Amino acid sequence: MTATASAKVEITHAVGLHARPSVKFTKLAKTFPATVEMALAEGGPWIDAKSIVKVMAAKAPKGTTLYLRAHGEGASEAVAALVALVTRDFDEAGEGEAHARSA
Fold first, then answer.
1. What Rg, from alpha-carbon coordinates, does the chain have?
2. Which helix (H) or strand (E) holds 30?
3. What span, in angstroms and rounded, lies between the C-alpha atoms of 4 and 34?
4. What is the per-residue pLDDT across 30-85, written as a single tens digit (0 to 9) for each?
5. d(C-alpha 55, C-alpha 18), whole Å
6. Is the pLDDT of residue 94 over 70?
7. Contacts within 8 Å (CB) and 24+ apart, 59-63
8. Strand, helix or coil at 41?
């Protein structure tokens, strides 16, 4: 039986899933062998969370709920790690707020 996992998490980063956060998100997703997908709505459309082009094209602003799902080896670990990264504001505490003010 193939492992599957899913979760949802709200983006609290001031500039949302923009360039730097998107790069961190996709780099982390790529470290897992599982197929990892994300959506901005529970029913999709689902996109490849390992694709920087697709993740950046989603243009998910602060306050957006990200829906995550993964299938295959490491699915649970992948989803948990991505939720943790989003929850930690992509490890950019304060950087997003400064960027939002200067934009």
1. 13
2. helix 19-30
3. 9
4. 999 999 999 999 999 999 999 999 999 999 999 999 999 999 999 999 999 999 99
5. 9
6. no
7. 59/16, 59/17, 60/11, 60/16, 60/17, 61/11, 61/15, 61/16, 61/17, 62/11, 62/12, 62/13, 62/14, 62/15, 62/16, 63/10, 63/11, 63/12, 63/16
8. coil
DSSP letters, 48-98, are ETT-HHHHHHT---TTPEEEEEEESTTHHHHHHHHHHHHHTGGG-TTHHHH
Q: State the Cα–Cα distance between residues 24 and 63, nearest whole angstrom.
A: 18
CA angle 97, 102, 103 (to 5 degrees): 100
Is pLDDT above 80 for 102? no
pLDDT category at 2 given cuts 50, 70, 90 is: confident
